[in-house]
Amino acid sequence: MDFPELISRAAVKMGDVFLPGLHGIEEFESIRNNPQMYEQDALEYLSDKESKHKFIAVLSMQKLPYEELLLFYRKVYQLFSIG
Questions:
Q1: Between the CA of residue 8 and those of 1, 13, 28, 35, 45, what are the distances in Å?
Q2: 64 pLDDT above the threshold of 70
Q3: Contact status, residue 51 vs residue 57, Cβ threshold 8 Å
Q4: Per the confidence metrics, is the pTM higher than 0.90?
Q5: Residues 18, 21, 27, 31: what is their CA dihedral angle, to the nearest 10 degrees?
Q6: CB burial class (10 A; 0-12, 13-18, 19+) of residue 50?
Q7: CB neighbours of 59 closer than 8 A, spacing ≥ 6?
Q8: What is the mean pLDDT of residues 33-61?
Q9: Distance of CA 15 to the CA centre of its chain
């Protein structure tokens, strides 16, 4: 499955529940447990104006190593500052 599909499926399974509802959702966990594999996909997803679940995409990167997570957040900030 590609990143947008994983995020969309996680959102459907999450329903109206907030962050605690994401833990244990297979699609979310597959990204969260392998964030380095999906980091570039996450940035591309976040830059797409049509993406509907951006907050979930950001949360899925929480297991990046600390320094990489800070760089990821900086890139996210830049994306939203520009667009």
A1: 11, 9, 9, 17, 11
A2: yes
A3: yes
A4: no
A5: 60
A6: exposed
A7: 19, 22, 28, 32
A8: 94
A9: 16
Question: What is the C-alpha separation between 58 and 76, in angstroms, rounded?
Answer: 8
The pLDDT assigned to 47 comes to: 95
What is the structure's pLDDT at 15? 57
From CA 60, how far away is CA 36, in angstroms rounded?
11
Residue 19 · residue 66 · CB < 8 Å: no
| Integer angstrom CA distances of residue 36 from 5, 31, 63 | 18, 9, 9
Residue type for position 2:
D
Confidence band for 75, pLDDT divided at 50, 70 and 90: very high
